Amino acid sequence: MTSMTAESVATILVSCKQTRFHIESPNYKELDIEGLNITVTSSQTEAKARVRAKAASKYPEGTEILSNAKLRLKAGQRYALIGRNGSGKSSLLKAIAERLIPGIPEQTRIAILQQTDADDIGEGATTTSSVLEYVVGRATSKDVLEREISLLSDGLSTGDEVKAIRALRQVHHERMQKHLFVLDKMARLRSGARGMAARKELIAFEKEVTEFSVLQQQKDEEIRSSQAGAEGLQEAMDMLSDLQLQLEPAKMSGVESRARQLLTGLGFSESQTAKSIFELSGGWKMRAALAAVLLQETDILILDEPTNFLDLFGIIWLQKYLRSFEDDPEAPTLILVSHDRDFISLCTDLLILKDKDLTYFHGDLSMYEASKSERRQYLSKMKDAKDKQKAHIQSTIAGNIKEGKKKGDDNRLRQAKSRQKKLDDRWGLEVGAKGGRFKLNRDFGQYAFKMRADIEVPLDDRPLHIVLPQPPDLRFPGPLISLEDVSFTYPIQKRGSPQAGRASTESATLKNMTLSIGSGDRIGVLGLNGSGKSTLIKLLVNEEKPSQGNLTTHPRLKLGYYSQAAVEHLQRLGVAEPELTALSLLTREVEGQLDEGDLRGILGELGLPGRLASDVAIRKLSGGQLVRCELARLLWRCPHILVLDEVTTHLDYETTTALREALREWKGAVVLVSHDRWFMRGVVEGAVDDGEDDVGDDSDDDAGESGMRRRDVYRIKDGKLIKLDGGVQQFENIVEKKAGRLLPG
């Protein structure tokens, strides 16, 4: 086996094993890579990078993501890539998408959605590009084809054969530069005989590029006097005809029709589709980028956190759309990263990145966790039994040695020696990898110091444990927040109307809402984007005043409000104050009410311990860490109620799980707006796992003056608050019906 190393323009070093007889699979939807190593390094000069790359297989520098891993993807399967934040999921996806991994053929069509796509919109669009034009152009490389057509048309329209030939040569030059980049990358990726062949091909093509550059520098008189005139003119006309066929209206109309369907499913209206792509917010730009990725014809489809910028309708529509590939023999292989547990249930397999290795599980996350738990329990019981058996054998050996030496009994001494050899050489797991009894000639295929593996019980990978401070006593009963026949209408000037300042003639945003929230209650609010969820939240936290009706709060109420714009606010604050840390921010806000030890305790319980809280500036914290910082700003006051508006958007799966568990057990009241169905079922409905309710939690003595905790889910529709007796599942069923009608045919 030989090992080779590759380096991306960024900071990713990749190496893997290949035999000298390696043949690339003709099935571009499959990957089978062994001995995969990935290391992420800081940027260096090209010379230093080459030196490092040569030694990377032995002494990799930087952060090692994978070490001797196996990357195996089966055609048409849907993989959920699971791993903690910082484990290297994005680096692995980038290495696949950019074909940095040897063994991924250059012909493999790979489409990827990354979290930075909104920032890269300008690279694939002009200032006049509409959303539809951007999506179609990015998916079909229409802009490249149109550029080539424009070059050739301009050259041929003059009737001057010299200009036509120069246009033709310009098109050839641009194509040769792209091919040169591919050959250069293949020469760096491959080693051994294949590497030598790739380098020879690169050298030969570099010679062609050099010779062609001489032709580009020819003067007009030289072109006219050469024999290239008539032939070049005909070649330019033929090439233009072929390019125009690729963009023929009948073909492009079908692509545009499909693009419109995708954009509609992702929430775009007809007017939004016609807007300039640069007029959209970051979230809507990401939806447009997602539509472009879904429109592409691809072998491997990679989606990195596609649900972060979608509402529940968009999430369910995308989930149903990806599920619709099940019976399609031409379906791409999907790699999906998402912390939305319900969303990744569409995947057939889990791809787990842990401890610098990749492991595989056929099934969903619940099955995987149950399997891990059963395996842990089985190994624990087996280890206990083997430890008792080993202790008994060691006691017998000691007794035999003592008796044998005392009585000079060689048989006992030989027996003791034989048993000791068994303990030293063959003690351990008695079950093979496939579950059958261990057999030496089958399971022990190579030299090792021990013939059997030790029984090792895997550590419980329990996620972050969040502790919420319990609310203080209210001293006298009463609802925390009460709405009585409340309606609300935004003034026209708040909607950017040119008639700002005049009396509002618009209908109410919220109409005749009545809601009472008591101690310990759990209230979930669902609705489509623009239905008024955030408006209701602003009324509850007193950021807006009712247009009519009464809103009252308990006189001793302490309220904690998490806004969906909290992370962006902290990021702006970090830019304005570069040295500000989470600890210094809280110290400033508590104004001496708590000491540093208390604040460190709150931050530590939320996952910002030690130097992370005191030494790392807020501007350097990740999105998930900023969420924890914002929660600390709310919780130090020990609120009676938490109003949470999309609190899970930036959180990883482990932190979301920990927060869900903490809120389930918390004594205070919770009002939750979230698109994460699994999170809402756990917090509001009290679901423990797979929809099973924790009925014992509703009768706790801390759940309010009645002794019962209310768990209600509401839907906002047409400005009205509607209680859903069927909870989250009822709303999900409603949205699924609507989403199903918008799936492309």
UniProtKB/TrEMBL annotation:
Keywords: ATP-binding, Nucleotide-binding, Repeat
A GO molecular-function descriptor: ATP hydrolysis activity
Domain (ABC transporter): residue spans on this chain: 51-381, 481-743
Gene3D superfamilies with a match to the protein in the record: P-loop containing nucleotide triphosphate hydrolases
Record PROSITE patterns: ABC_TRANSPORTER_1 (PS00211), ABC_TRANSPORTER_2 (PS50893)
Entries under InterPro entries matching the protein: AAA+_ATPase, ABC_tran_Xtn, ABC_transporter-like_ATP-bd, ABC_transporter-like_CS, ABCF, P-loop_NTPase
This protein's name: ABC transporter
Organism: Coniella lustricola
